[in-house]
Specification:
The complex is a heteropentamer, with 1 copy of chain A, 2 copies of chain B and 2 copies of chain C.
Chain A: E1 11-15, H1 26-39, E2 42-46, H2 52-64, E3 69-73, H3 77-80, H4 82-91, E4 94-99, E5 108-111, H5 114-127, E6 135-140, H6 149-161, E7 164-169, H7 172-176, H8 181-191, E8 195-199, H9 204-208, H10 210-217, E9 225-229, H11 233-241, E10 246-249, H12 252-269, E11 275-277, E12 281-284, H13 292-297
Parallel strand pairs in A: 1-2, 1-3, 3-4, 4-5, 5-11, 6-7, 6-8, 8-9, 9-10
Antiparallel strand pairs in A: 10-12
Chain B: E1 11-22, E2 25-36, E3 40-45, H1 51-58, E4 66-71, E5 74-76, H2 83-88, E6 91-94, H3 106-111, H4 125-140, H5 158-171, E7 176-180, H6 188-203, E8 207-211, H7 215-221, E9 224-229, E10 232-238, H8 244-258
Parallel strand pairs in B: 3-8, 3-9, 6-7, 7-8
Antiparallel strand pairs in B: 1-2, 1-4, 4-5, 9-10
Chain C: H1 9-15, H2 18-22, H3 28-44, H4 46-49, H5 53-61, H6 63-77, H7 85-103, H8 107-131, H9 135-154, E1 159-160, H10 168-174, E2 176-177, E3 180-181, H11 182-200, H12 202-212, H13 214-219, H14 224-250, E4 252-253, H15 261-271, H16 283-302, H17 308-329, H18 335-345
Antiparallel strand pairs in C: 1-4, 2-3
Classes of the chains: A alpha/beta, B alpha/beta, C mainly alpha.
The structure holds adenosine-5'-triphosphate (2 copies) and magnesium ion (2 copies).
Chain lengths: 300, 259, 346, 346, 259
């Protein structure tokens, strides 16, 4: 028998999260495609524009096609996924989660520990010089969603270090067009000249406009400690010029690649319950240069 | 016709010092006027004299800027008056402006505002179509091919539309029927029908306000003549006091005096 | 004049090609488009579309947007717009979820959720009629306002109520009869009711005339403001109902609930064939429109269309469906086809 | 008749209260609303709003949505809608960015980007006029279609072009004169040009009549289809220009670019006071409307509003602005105020 | 008036077997007709007879379903004909349906479609207002207070609107002027003005098609009479051959024969 692992004949539905080509989605797509090509799996990507409701519907649509495996996003939560998970189990369909965990299901999971990632961001900013009594601003989402766990992680890190902070909720529009965040953060900075740091837990596009924000508020590069999320071409420029202090990277390529691999492993060999925290990457002005070409290919 | 009980003064409508401004345009100025029972009033006047505005105030389409309005002896509150209320007080109007829903079928246009419904408000479509059909055939007598009660009003010719509007007024049995240039766009025979209809109003003991630029028509059917000029009443007289020639002369004189 | 008899309208009616007579029935044309689409997907994705499961999935998920689209059809027929429904969906979902979770209320929670919808819809109506702000702007503003309010009230919480599946209200609104999701029956019920109201009730007639020409409606004795108030209130009520159905199906409330429906619902109404200019509209069309919108993406994915192409193809399918819908009813209503026909005749 | 002289219209004109005459000038009412808003923010957030920096930030970021809103004003005046502009923005941004990055083209890249905008806008126009699909549906479909196309073509990649800041084209379109962002001048230029076209050019007159009543426009000899084609093409061109300005300012292209502008731009047009029913519109109003929309969130945040309250307050500010705008021009156009006035007079 | 050069046959308009269907409604059937130079043609017929449709086909508002249309001797392609082209061929029309932009000021309505512009297409607003003012004052003579060339047309009274439409036709000096029920809604004096205007058309060597239900008016000014009945031409004769009474009798007879 051929010992090589292949997924030939397998169909895998895969939820990519955002919209095709989103900065937070592209690397995942590329990773998933690479793995699918390698393992000869038939990949069926689904896009939900980060709409939890749609993710849930798409999971059910995938189920209706009775594929071999379904890779889901965990945004809708274990409770709302319950019916889906039960039916998938009954039908013998492998379910793998990516990006956001489904706690209590014991399914294979590849993604950040969002909370830990947020905490890491806060800690890195403190390591970069943020002190007890300093004031920071967190520009993110604070709803009780899995994504907002990132903000909560950062908050905990700040609390622990005695850093005070204001919370600004980003708008749907700024999430789609980050340049819309520039006047908002800039005017906040002007009204609060004592602020020493900006944290953007969980948005690569807004991280990328931090340089513009500081320019607009009349802040010199390096005068604020700024922390963002997910590396992108413009963020690299920010790092280079010193506007961006630290970037935590969740390495979404892995979130695409690994679930396909895990699905094949589980289907073929029954290997289950794999887990990986993909969010180990941290970039500062000292260590980003080598990643530049990869970012431009969309892999990082 | 049903007679109203109680305080009925014999007057259907009375206006006291009615004024109507549109922004800085003064369309009606101190209009005092009353319409009695069983009289046909011809309302005349130049273009822009305020005839249509007067009608709109009377039927609740527009609220007067100042003044009092009494219908069947009861004062109606300014702003509180509505078309619906006027209909309930048995006033029926054919407006000069389009008053038909152009995308709706003929039968709906006929009954809109007062459909034939069951207790739950559901419309008896069959009955409405039947009656509409009857009236369109008998009263107005369309001769075009391909027109039925299901025809969309927007597709009718100018005269046909006017026919629908008049048919509506003919159907709902009212105490006061107001006709604002009803014969406009109508062919000779249909004009005759409208004049006959007005005479039947009189015969039925009901009243009518009839606006028209063709003086001969008005003079033929009216009991009383009212002339508006630049928002004011310039003449209010029994027809018997004025021949057609005198009337024509009077109207033309208005131009000479004041222009 | 010898031709007279052949020009009898009823005779002319009979002479119309049979296809034209079929497609004159409300919704038949769009139904044909839908059938065509399903047919195509059956060929391109037989594994999925020849089974029953996918259809049950649709029937479980389509009812909320379909009910919203039905309500919006009324609003559009009246010549108005409502963009605030996503926030009303979220608000009523929240009310239902929190009352169930904290006080184990079921029917009362349902009632409270509907009441919230009615109130928010009513407020829309009051703003439109009393402040005279066009409904598109009003509801764009209340989309933000209500949405902000519910996140403040809920503190942005996500509320999971998995135990609601054991309640009678769940079985009643979102259970399964065999494999058939009950909410599909509710959607059909709403559609039938609204069809009768629009086409056979005096309220529907008033809505038609208001949308046709508000001035004419006023002049013929329709209380335009009062009817508009009713329309927005109805939309609020239906939004709340959609919200509760959604919450029962997903057993979760989260604060962005409903937002994803904005474009979908608007698209359903217009693909269904309701005129954007008011004065006419089709309930059957909206039902099918909602199904088409729901099926496109799933069908494309199941057919193996890759990533980036889905969005593009959704756009194409929209355009083709609308054109086909119009052309089936009357080819002359598509200017291009009319011109081609005239050219060919010469 | 003794009153005659006092009723001379010109005399009547003079007798109007001075406030009414001021607010009769195009855009003065909305300008007052804007000034009020700024005034409030100067009090609640003096540190920010008494400095010049925040204004420069606005002037750097508002031009793209403002130019889009100006184009959309034309579309709306013609009684049409365009929802596809976000995808056109993205498409032209991509074309500009990729040509600059791969071939170091600047002016040619600019030309190519505009050309793409013109073509996509033209296609919208062709679909609307030739297939007879209402523009709202057409452009909803092409929003998806063009958006899908650009992700396919770009492979979804984000393109950063930081080095563009050293080019002449950057200085020309998005540089700074002292502290003043040059793009603000371009936005003003576009506004002035469009004001003259709408109010003083035969094309603008045709647009006004088409929006007023397309049937009348046809009957008086306006080539309705051709003019509509021009309108959508113009909107495409302006979207492309906005896209290039945006790319020059942010020195990056990404595939969701422009999408965040959808509601903002629509809101700007309507808050500015342009009628949703077509046939009339105000360029000055749109300019101020875009400024108001841009300033609200920043002003609220600078005033210390945090978290979820911003969204709610944005909704409230929208409603208040629109009402105030209408009431300043003519209190009687707000039904509630009119009723109150009538009550008080009695 | 400028004479046309070359192949000019003396005919302004010729229709050959023109047909117009609206869905299953047949509005025009085999219409053959020609309008000569310097002739006033009265076009008569019942409501829904097809008069307005005939005009619309002639002026390019609607494309005929079949048949040929010649203007000044040249065939115009079906579908290719447009209102603009008709205007360029110096045909001016007052339509029966509203043809005014209601939200636009009076002066714009006057010149729309053919504004006075500089070479870049920018409108000379001052000139347009001046001319509009002149014509409104002299030709139509509005007497209402508060109406100016800046007034929005939607705020005018019915007759005032009609006046604007006619003023437009009077201003643009054309070879053929088509008037579809122009006196509708006009007061006596204004009706007189329209009739005088038609006579001035004749005197100026130009032509006119005049649709009207008031037979006396038509008979007074027309050289030739054409009667449409249910989409077909039922009569085409010189006026001299028919007295007003005969004409009335003929029109009424159509009802008897075929209904
Ligand atoms: N909505 C309005 N806004 C402003 N002015 C108006 C409005 N409606 C009518 N007017 C003005 O009021 C005056 C009277 O108009 P009205 O329609 O009552 O005249 P009318 O006597 O019916 O004239 P016609 O014989 O032409 O129908 C006119 O000068 C008209 O311009
Ligand atoms: N757009 C349309 N769609 C369908 N039928 C139409 C349309 N326009 C006109 N018709 C029909 O064509 C016939 C002729 O209409 P037309 O307007 O030419 O009549 P007309 O002779 O001008 O009548 P009137 O004296 O009432 O103005 C009518 O039966 C009418 O219903
Ligand atoms: Mg009038
Ligand atoms: Mg006619």
């Amino acid at each position: 028998a051929d010992p090589a692992l292949t997924g030939e004949g397998m169909t895998v539905y895969f939820q990519m999260g955002g919209n095709p080509g989103d900065s937070a989605t592209l690397a995942r797509e590329l990773g998933a495609k690479a793995a699918a090509d390698l393992l000869k799996v038939k990949l069926m990507p689904q896009y939900a524009g980060w709409d939890q409701q749609k993710m849930l519907e798409q999971a059910n649509q995938a189920l209706a096609a009775q594929p071999d495996a379904i890779v889901v996003m965990g945004h809708s939560g274990t409770d709302s996924m319950k019916r889906f998970l039960d039916e998938a189990k009954e039908a013998g369909i492998v379910v793998v989660t990516n990006n956001t965990r489904l706690p209590g299901t014991g399914l294979s999971y590849f993604g950040l520990d969002n909370y830990a990632a947020g905490k890491l961001l806060g800690e890195q900013m403190i390591a970069a010089g943020l002190k007890s009594g300093d004031k920071a601003v967190i520009y993110g989402t604070f709803e009780q969603t899995a994504h907002a766990d990132i903000s909560r992680g950062t908050i905990e890190a700040f609390d622990a270090a005695g850093v005070t902070y204001d919370k600004l909720q980003w708008s749907n529009e700024a999430v789609q067009d980050p340049s819309l965040a520039v006047p908002v953060i800039a005017s906040y900075l002007q009204s609060n000249p004592d602020v020493k740091a900006i944290a953007v837990p969980g948005h690569s596009g807004i991280t990328a406009v931090l340089a513009k924000v500081m320019e607009a508020a009349g802040k010199e590069p390096g005068s604020l400690i700024t922390g963002g999320y997910d590396i992108s071409p413009l963020t690299i420029d920010g790092l280079r010029k010193g506007y961006v202090t630290v970037v935590v990277d969740q390495q979404p390529y892995l979130q695409g690649y690994m679930p396909v691999l895990a699905a094949v492993l589980q289907k073929r060999y029954g290997i289950a319950g794999l887990e990986m925290n993909t969010g180990g990457g941290v970039f500062t002005k000292d260590n980003f240069e080598w990643v530049v070409p990869l970012v431009e290919q969309g892999v990082r | 016709m049903t007679m109203q009980a109680g305080e009925d003064s014999g007057e259907l409508v009375r206006m006291e010092n009615i004024q109507k401004h549109y922004g800085k345009v003064e369309s009606l100025r101190n209009v005092n006027l009353s319409i009695g029972r069983n009289e046909i009033v011809g309302l005349l006047g130049d273009n822009g004299a305020g005839k249509s505005t007067l009608i709109k105030v009377m039927t609740g389409v527009e609220a007067p800027t100042a003044g009092k309005l009494f219908i069947k002896g009861k004062e109606v509150e300014a702003g509180g008056h509505s078309v619906r209320q006027a209909q309930e007080l048995r006033i029926e109007t054919v407006y000069q402006d389009k008053s038909l829903g152009e995308k709706q079928p003929l039968w709906r246009n006929f009954f809109v505002g007062r459909p034939i419904t069951n207790r739950l408000g559901f419309i008896d479509v069959k009955a409405e179509k039947r009656i509409a059909e009857q009236i369109m055939k008998s009263t107005i007598g369309f001769r075009s091919r391909g027109i039925s009660v299901d025809s969309t009003v927007g597709k009718l010719s100018g005269g046909e539309r006017q026919g629908v509007a008049i048919g509506r007024a003919m159907h709902f049995d009212s105490d006061l029927i107001i006709l604002d240039e009803p014969t406009v766009a109508l062919a000779i025979k249909e004009v005759r029908r409208v004049l006959d209809f007005i005479q039947s109003i009189k015969a039925g003991g009901r009243s009518c306000i009839y606006i028209e630029h063709t003086l001969a028509n008005v003079h033929e059917v009216a009991d009383r003549l009212i002339v508006l000029d630049r928002g004011e009443i310039a003449l209010d007289t029994q027809k018997s006091a004025m021949s057609l020639n005198e009337l024509t002369e009077f109207l033309l004189s208005l131009h000479r005096v004041r222009h | 004049m010898a031709m007279q008899t052949t020009n009898d309208p009823s005779a002319a009616g009979l002479r119309l090609p049979i296809s034209r007579r079929i497609f004159a029935v409300e919704g038949m044309a769009i139904l044909a488009v839908f059938a065509l689409l399903i047919g195509i997907f059956m060929i391109t994705a037989p594994q999925t579309f020849l089974g029953y499961r996918i259809y049950m999935t649709f029937l479980a998920n389509v009812p909320p947007p379909m009910i919203l689209a039905l309500g919006l059809t009324f609003v559009v027929v009246a010549g108005e717009m409502d963009l605030s429904f996503p926030s009303i969906v979220a608000f009523s979902s929240y009310v239902f979820a929190i009352l169930f979770k904290n006080y184990e209320l079921t029917w009362l929670a349902f009632g409270a959720a509907l009441l919230v919808g009615v109130i928010l819809g009513f407020i829309n109506g009051v703003i439109v009629t009393q402040l005279g702000i066009p409904s598109m702007i009003t509801t764009l503003a209340t989309l933000f306002l209500y949405g902000g309010l519910v996140t403040i009230v809920s503190g942005g919480l996500t509320i999971a109520i998995p135990s609601v599946t054991d309640t009678g209200i769940h079985a009643f609104f979102a259970g399964r009869i065999g494999v058939l999701p009950v909410q599909a029956l509710w959607a059909v019920g709403v559609a039938v009711l609204l069809w009768f109201i629009l086409n056979r009730h005096r309220f529907g007639e008033n809505v038609l005339f208001i949308g046709d020409n508000a001035r004419v409606a006023h002049v013929v004795g329709i209380r335009v403001d009062r009817e508009k108030l009713k329309i927005f209130t109805l939309m609020g009520l239906l939004s709340a109902f959609a919200g509760v159905l959604l919450t029962l199906e997903t057993t979760t409330y989260f604060s962005s609930q409903g937002m994803g429906y904005l474009l979908i619902v608007v698209a359903s109404v217009f693909i269904g064939g309701t005129s954007i200019f008011g004065g006419s509209g089709t309930i059957v069309g909206t039902v099918i429109g909602a199904l088409i919108v729901a099926i496109i993406e799933a069908g494309l994915v199941a057919s193996g269309v890759q990533g980036f192409w889905t969005r593009l193809l959704i756009g194409v399918v929209f355009l083709v469906s609308v054109t086909l819908n119009t052309a089936l009813e009357d080819p002359d209503r598509v200017p291009l086809f009319k011109r081609i026909r005239l050219r060919m005749k010469r």
